Amino acid sequence: MTKDHPAGKTTRRAFMRGAVAGGVGTLVTGGAAKAAGDAAILEVQPWSRELGVGVDASGYGMPSPHEAGVHRTPVDWLTADPFASINFTPIHKLDGIITPNGVCFERHHSGAAQIDPAAHRLMINGLVERELVFTMDDLRRLPRENHVYFLECTANSGMEWRGPQLNGVQFTHGMIHNVMYTGVPLRHLLAEAGVKLSGKWVLFEGADAAGLTRSVPMEKVMDDCLVAFAMNGEALRVEQGYPLRLVIPGWEGNMWIKWLRRIEVGDAPWHAKEETSKYTDLMPDGRARRFTWVMDAKSVITSPSPQMPIRHGKGRMVLTGLAWSGRGTIPRVDVTLDGGKNWHMARMDGPSLDKSLHRFYYEFDWDGGEMLLQSRAHDNTGYVQPTKDALRALRGVNSTYHNNGIQTWHVGRDGEVENVEIS
Amino acid sequence: MTKDHPAGKTTRRAFMRGAVAGGVGTLVTGGAAKAAGDAAILEVQPWSRELGVGVDASGYGMPSPHEAGVHRTPVDWLTADPFASINFTPIHKLDGIITPNGVCFERHHSGAAQIDPAAHRLMINGLVERELVFTMDDLRRLPRENHVYFLECTANSGMEWRGPQLNGVQFTHGMIHNVMYTGVPLRHLLAEAGVKLSGKWVLFEGADAAGLTRSVPMEKVMDDCLVAFAMNGEALRVEQGYPLRLVIPGWEGNMWIKWLRRIEVGDAPWHAKEETSKYTDLMPDGRARRFTWVMDAKSVITSPSPQMPIRHGKGRMVLTGLAWSGRGTIPRVDVTLDGGKNWHMARMDGPSLDKSLHRFYYEFDWDGGEMLLQSRAHDNTGYVQPTKDALRALRGVNSTYHNNGIQTWHVGRDGEVENVEIS
Question: Is B285 exposed, middle or buried (0-12, 13-18, 19+ CB in 10 A)?
């Protein structure tokens, strides 16, 4: 039904807005049939005759074999080295807002560290009254909180800066996941250590071989950052920083330090590699934007999309997608079927949580004609997701990071979907 | 650290309320140490020297090997037949409110049916204008919704009716899970079929060999029931009814028909086996309560608990647990450390969603003395979770189902925890 590896480069295909009429036609009923002649309902199926599988005695449950195509997938030509690489969440196949832990995308700088939690320590040093070292058991004696947050890699959609590249929403927008974290607010940990008046910035350092470090202003740390040990109810996954990661809601993914082992309080940023030569945004004049932490409002249609073509023909259908903002919630998403000539308010569904993914739907009757699908998120600050051209006008085409531009999918009369741009 | 199979029967041990002083003493600091002499922080660990594991290319991610003890577990003496059996969610090891799909408890009457979704059909017949048959693809063309709901087996805590039996919260309270469902509201499906004015009840039938059937009044069906195809964002798990299950929020688990294949509209209940000889509540006078659908408000402390003894000694600690109500939300949970002499309001944390698990915490300094721990849930209708003795006074001791009584844990000076009752 779907193309599982459409990650080859696509040629840029520009569509004129006027060339597509948009898909709403007369109401065509679809979606249910009479039983006449359908053996699947007229005959007793094998699973109704025979005993199924007994209960699991000590394992960890897995998806149905029929769902084997739903998994994280890398793009070979993008990052060939598996240790300093990326794979992508299969967002085209998911629904709701929770990402199952087994399909949360990965990004490592030196591979996923394999840590024995009994030997893991978290150290606090620098401008504090008391330097402290915590075991994992120590951390579980402090007050903890639960929050659902999205984590988006700042390079998500980065390959699309200069034009359509990757023909699948898993690859254009799949460096994102959304889980419920359980962890200790940083403000409790820093209260233990006693921050000196001169302490204005905090360094977070990972225990992996990359020793990733980032500087975070004290105001953010004290506001909503967590030291998390669980995701979706269970222990963090190894590839998500087991046994401990920083959660820094709404900010770019590389700052969510995994395998967290050290917190240092200082009076200025450290200008670490990952905030100077890396994870900065090169502007047209050769200068770079730095400390561009917040992930701005963004949305994308996950189905239909190149990996989720329309197979059922014309008539009723459900369009769905995801929207999020590092600044808050998403009260509204607009959808167009004709490249922006007509916009429709999508139906927001499910819990609207701060700095979490939001799910939207738009139900309509497809007339079987070509469509140019787009979605446009509005966040609760009033910010509206920009077009890619608007982003390029401001920031040029040297960037990889912070591409939150509007995505366009072309739907053909055959229901096939392609990553395009309107010009 | 924990006892993983404490499911052997325990002898009834009654505690006098006056015998335990309760655990709050003078503040004893705990939970962080200086680095002096701790090689785990003074020396560079192996995972900081060597490359970790590369990104996953096509698999489905699994928990750390250090978390291998976190899994569903049956109780051998309770249900020896794996096909018509039960296992239990490891709620003692979980946090937050989301249950990962891989550890959601199972209960089958004829094993978990292994269904090919391409061959699965959902039929609507009976008192309707149009009998209909839906494929899975047909259902995806109808408007869908996302909701987080708990599912509790009506036999959860059933073994505890006559006194403490199972020495672990996984076994006393682990026939529950809480996930985000994606599905089509029944009201949309029934609108397609056109319910006749005489249609007052709805039968739901499973496609497994048990062919489980239950009758549901039309009012509930039209209110909030879903035909769900996804849980926590991905397809339903096989053991949870893949590819389709009924979601009947707040009502007892056996009614959430798995492998759903048929919906029949009628004018009266069907009096099926599972609502006559089974899943009824035998009263002291020999008569049975029937159609006791709603799961009343309940709570339990998940840590400390027999499988989660206190290992860190006296001083600061976190007590945590779960609360839920089939009638709505849980605005308040009370906790006692001394068997009910003094009650403290717990801190509710995380999203408070309708008919969903709620997480509570109570942080205190343990003086190292014996404790009798209890929690007591209040739901948003004003209902307060009863004691087990109050339940017995009303309903006798012939019941297995609908035991929502207050659970007591005894904590010894050594931090070990035991399932007891206060008398």
Answer: exposed
